[in-house]
Amino acid sequence: MAIRTPLLHTERLGSQTLYRVRRGPSGVWRPRPLLVGAALTVLVVAAFTAELVTGRFPVSAAEAIGALFWYGEQSTVDVVYGLRLPRALVGLLAGAAFAVSGAIFQTLARNALASPDVIGVTAGANAAAVAGLVLGAGAGLSTAVLALLGAAASAVAIYALAWKNGATGYRIILIGIGISALCTSITAYLLQRADLFQAQRAVVWLTGSINMREWTHVVPLAAAVAVLLPVAFVLGRHLAALTLGDDTARGLGVPVQRSRAVLLFTAVGLAAFATAAAGPIAFVALIAPQVALRLVGRPTPPMAASALTGAFIVLAGDMAARPFDLPVGVVTGLVGAAGLMWLLARANRTGQGA
Asked: Which InterPro entries match (predicted)?
């Protein structure tokens, strides 16, 4: 007889977190997540539309929407489809992928500072991409493919080194920090060896940008998001149980090691494909889940709200960076650095020790 997996639900009551185990829909109406989701959706649609109409070639919102259905002048259709739509889609998908990846890492590690930036996934992508630009390693492969391979290699190394009768979030974080330091050192060494032109190309890529993106960047990222995002949403119901510890989660019927492994490689895959398409856009994976968590009022980062928040941060950051001809990574870096300092100050004040 099939055994249904119990579902663990958490909610915040004042300063305390309540845990409830159930086997079916509770029927409890919670308007706040729906209202937050609706508001974030409106913001994302507005930012996406702004990406389509903003630029040197003037296009109105009605013309941009018409161009999406191949109506209007051919020049407008060419500008919207050939230049602006790929850029907007990369921003939308990369932001959502980074944010969901960060939400998974932060929940598994029970640490608000855990993200692909911290545990070495994006550092591995950076090292591989810079090696290709400076040394010509992987000749014939694009920078995006090299970044994807670097992220995958670092993720496998982290999981293998963290394995000891299973892999815990604590060991993964510690090993990941070491791998991140190693990859960062390799990247710095390669930049020192590079000539001026190679170093400039590498620095632009390391900043993170969605400028001049094409459909060749959109298609693999969209395919990865279409596969990995549903997996993250489906297995997200196990995340709250895993935060209670392996024994408790196992007692609640959660397959601990299998769920953790699938969730980790889903998070790595999302971060790797986003980095390959847009570069390592700083702090989105760190900040977006924390913003969504506070908007929804949940003790752990919610997946859907995190995805919408990440997409809005990247699209809005790109709009803010356009007048200054800056990569979006500069804007997210400035905002994210302020957010990181706030998280550290809050953790120090509450004694959580982030």
From this structure: ABC_BtuC-like, ABC_transptr_permease_BtuC
Cβ-based neighbours of 75, under 8 Å, separated by 6 or more:
57
Alpha helix ranges (H) inside 163-282: 169-193, 196-207, 215-242, 246-251, 256-278
| One-letter amino acid for residue 8 of the chain | L
Q: Would you say residue 262 lies in a domain? A: yes
- Who wins on pLDDT, 168 or 31? 31
Q: What is the pLDDT of residues 246-300, one digit of tens each?
A: 778 777 777 777 888 888 889 888 988 898 888 889 889 988 998 999 899 888 8
d(CA 41, CA 142): 33
CATH number, position 130: 1.10.3470.10
Torsion of CA 106, 145, 315, 46, to 10 degrees: -110
Report how many domains make up the chain: 1
The CA distance from 45 to 236, in Å, is 25
Beta bridge partners of 10: 19
Whose tokens are 């149980």? That residue is: 241
Q: Check: CB of residue 151 under 8 Å from CB of residue 276.
A: yes
Token pair belonging to 79: 């500008």
Residue-wise pLDDT tens digits, 38-74: 999 999 999 999 999 988 888 888 888 888 888 888 8
- Reference 154, options 190, 134, 181; nearest CA is 181
Distance CA 209, CA 191 (A): 19
Of the CA atoms within 13 Å of residue 21, those in its CB half-sphere come to 11
Residue identified by tokens 């298609």 is 219
Residue 266, in any domain of the structure: yes
Cβ atoms of residues 151 and 168 within 8 Å: no
Closest CA to 204 of 327, 296, 97, 115: 327
Is the distance from CB of 224 to CB of 273 less than 8 angstroms? yes
pTM, entire model = 0.84
Instruction: Please identify which residue in the block is written with the tokens 């050939």.
Output: 82
Residue 16 lies in a domain: no
The range of the structural domain enclosing residue 46 comes to 29-348
Q: Which two tokens stand for residue 301?
A: 């980062």
Is position 194 within any domain? yes
Tokens 């995958």, located at residue: 152
Helix (H) or strand (E) holding 7, with range, is strand 7-13
